[in-house]
Design goal:
Elements (H helix, E strand, L loop, with lengths): L17 H8 L11 H15 L8 E9 L2 E9 L9 E7 L13 H11 L2 E5 L11 H15 L1 H4 L1 E11 L1 H12 L8 E7 L21 H11 L25 E8 L3 H13 L4 E10 L11 H15 L2
Helix pairs in contact: 3-9, 4-6
Length: 320
């Protein structure tokens, strides 16, 4: 049984923005069988030049190795192009999307650069471990560790430890939400904001899942990702992967929730925003009714991504 929807917008395929419709028309038909993780990763790499324009210049980038529970992983550090070298910047710790299975530092390189430049901030992008090679809670553990590492190394990174936010898209939005929960009572890391772009919030499929075809992410594709990351059904109720099911959301940092109309995750994203607000968290919701899942990382073909980045920039400015 699905939960009653509180949707403010119920998308049908005829309502899709022209740019999104044109994008979907260019896509090949889905394969008869689901792609392997390796095939999906290669497909994402090949699609990158078609989805993203040339990389914007930033003041600097640098990669660091971070020791984690499962070994060392990489993070990539950016400083916005209009920032001063001696300025302790606000910083967003960013977790890329890709269903915990695909994506890497390069898949979201353009987006991290764009946010750093637009918000005059630093961004630390996290190359967390992927499933199915590393199942839950590996990605969650790396996300928490990376955020704690940024706070502990604020002087080295020349960022302000009192102005740390977390953000991410899709599976990365899930990680940002769960990191905010994990660090809610951490005296050493006081998050200023959480930016959740079409986040995954409930792995139990409690909420309506409305798209089987015609969109970038389908119900079946989402189930495949979840099966790779959290194969155990009972584990999917753990708040570390299903933040919507956490016992309490009180005391969390202000949240920006960005939702796309053509997305099987819309209902659970809106439900999370609704519950945050009900439990006293300051929430801003931005609806993009004609857009599909993943639009923010496809700026070359879907210009509405720039509007979402402007929303992120404004929210960071108000909470940093």
């Amino acid at each position: 049984m699905t939960a009653a929807s509180t949707f403010t917008f119920r998308a049908s395929l005829g309502d899709m923005d022209p740019e999104s419709s044109a994008y979907m028309a260019l896509q090949p038909p889905p394969p008869a069988t689901p792609p392997t993780p390796e095939m999906a990763r290669e497909g994402m790499r090949r699609a990158r030049p078609f989805n993203q324009p040339d990389l914007p210049h930033v003041a600097m980038t640098r990669e660091y190795a971070v020791p984690g529970k499962g070994g060392t992983f990489q993070v990539r550090y950016y400083r916005g192009v209009r920032t001063f070298p001696d300025e302790a910047l606000p910083v967003q710790v960013y977790f890329h999307g890709g269903g915990w299975v695909i994506g890497d530092l390069d898949s979201h390189d353009w987006l991290c650069r764009a946010v750093a430049n637009a918000a005059n901030c630093a961004v630390v992008s996290v190359d967390y471990r992927l499933a199915p090679e590393h199942r839950f809670p590996a990605a969650f553990d790396d996300a928490v560790t990376a955020t704690q590492w940024v706070a502990a190394h604020a002087t080295m990174l020349n960022v302000d430890p009192s102005r740390i936010s977390v953000g991410g898209d899709s599976a990365g939005g899930n990680l940002a939400a769960t990191v905010a929960l994990a660090l809610r009572d951490d005296a050493k890391v006081k998050l200023r904001a959480q930016i959740l772009t079409y986040p995954i919030t409930d792995l139990t499929f409690t909420y309506d899942q409305r798209f089987e075809k015609g969109v970038a992410l389908t119900n079946g594709g989402m189930r495949d990702f979840i099966d790779h990351y959290v194969p155990g059904i009972a584990q999917r109720r753990d708040w570390r992967c299903s933040p919507l099911l956490a016992p309490s959301l009180k005391g969390l940092p202000p949240a920006l929730v960005i939702l796309a109309g053509f997305d099987p995750l819309y209902d659970e994203g809106e439900a999370y925003a609704t519950r945050l607000k009900a439990e006293g968290v300051a929430v801003t919701v931005k609806h993009f009714p004609g857009q599909m899942h993943g639009f923010v990382s496809r700026p070359k073909l879907l210009p509405k991504s720039l509007d979402a980045i402007a929303d992120i920039t404004a929210f960071m400015a108000a909470h940093s």
